[in-house]
Input
Amino acid sequence: MLVCDQVTKRYGNQPRKAVDTLNFSIAAGQIFGFLGPNGAGKSTTIKMLTGLLKPDSGSISFMGYSLHSDPLAYKRLIGYVPDEPLFYERMSGYEHLSFIADLYGVGSAERKQRIDELGERLLLKHALNDEISSYSHGMKQKLSIISALLPSPKLLILDEPMVGLDPKAAFILKTLLGEFAESGNTVFFSTHVLEVAQQLCSRLGIIKEGRLLYNGTLQELQSRTQELDATLESLFLELTESEG
Output
């Protein structure tokens, strides 16, 4: 289970906290969609969940491992897809993936199998021997997803993973995320594509101005607003525009 307990972050002397006493827990097998307007605190939250930013207060843990007191054990369990994939561009895709496998201690036989399998699933196998500098943005996004899945993590954290993917690749990613969660793993991802969140997520978190406005299922949100047939898009707009 991923647990975020009273997590708060403020940048410098800004009057408003970027993330304000954030609380949620996500069980194994769940896909958690993290939604909010631009500047709501989504990327800041993700950077704290991955250890790229340190919270001012509060705690983060996964499967009992604290990000604060046992960061290496915590990070070995997670895969991360950032909103802007960055690579050593003179490497080939295969060299980059071998580098990731080395970091996570993935053996040679397993890494070859995983790289071949994921490269084929995400339609990138043909380009893995090419320099990353020759890749399009969508190809780099696919490489980032393969990198995150390669070490078989228990928690997958993705920041706007659909950006840059063509419809076929987006469909493949949704299928992979569903399979990943069905295997007992946990997915946390942010997205502005509310149709994807409605289709894919078992739970939703809606954040605005650093505070979590809602945490639950779409059906619970529909019941709360007494709009049982409402789309996530309409409920999201209603909630984020009505809250002060």
